[in-house]
Amino acid sequence: MKYTPIAIICSAALISACSDQPTYQKIEGQTMGTSYHISYQHPDGVDAKAIQASIDQRLQAINISMSTYMDDSTISKFNRLPSATPIQIDADFAKVLADSQSIYQASNQAFDPTVYPLVELWGFGKQMSVERLQSPPNADEIAKAKAVIGLDKVLVNGQSIQKTVDGVGLDFSAIAKGYAVDVIAQTLKDSYGITNYMVEIGGEVATLGQNDKGKPWTLAVDAPVADSSVKTRDTITTLTQPKDGSLHIATSGNYRNSVEYEGVRYSHTINPVTGNPVADGAPSITVLHDSVALADGWATALTAMPYADALATANREGIQALFIIENSNKTGFDIVKTDAMQQKFPN
User: Which residues are part of a known binding site?
Assistant: First the structure.
């Protein structure tokens, strides 16, 4: 589950272009159970409605492929199938599954789109509750749930997939929004030659070029304050896109979906390896990567680990990550960068 911890800083606006100049267009809407915001320099001779239609068409195609809210989506159909029954998948589905498999392997299975049976077992599907921590599932219940999770139980054969065990299901919510950002950014570039844009879906962001002030885009990262909301957010740091470059960024955090029990804060995120909620993980993790999909998936993978393990994994894999953790006095927050992030943003 993702919140929206990133804001685009342009004067006083949060996620928008910086002025009302007609050369920059803004598009907002709803998709994938969240909102999207797009700002771009409008090319001459192109109908803005055509650009909007292209964006809507691609987003709809991704939803039809991977939305667990749609009964007739490809992913929903797959989740209902018995084992050893193949189903054809489209190119979008195949790319997200391939990215998921790469993160699954590199993260030692911390990122696992089949993990939902464990989330449901712990009662964290929609809302955290301390009651389940007071009376947790026993070892047999956890083992039973773990028997139907594992991305290695999903086999790919060309453009079809099948599961090896009944009950295995996929949920790409931790990577699909990032993928959709990549797709829309690519549509703006390839179909319309747009090279100055910001695309944001559910807090995952891609930027390229300049905003309408002629400046690189600047992204603000929220402080992980437990009782904060989108309206009461506080900025803890900012990341400015390299001049004439791009940013592909995602942030994952637990502080708005966690509970404290016996002095330990537990996340709504379940560690697929242990079968337990994550305890003492970093409250907020921001990842930069070659694509927003990979940034999105890696942010989730690192959130599914205790902080020390996450930092070690990110450094081992060369991930550009920024961890926000409680300081030793528990009076505020410290920012810890991986080696790769420090090289990218030394200040």
Answer: 174, 296, 300
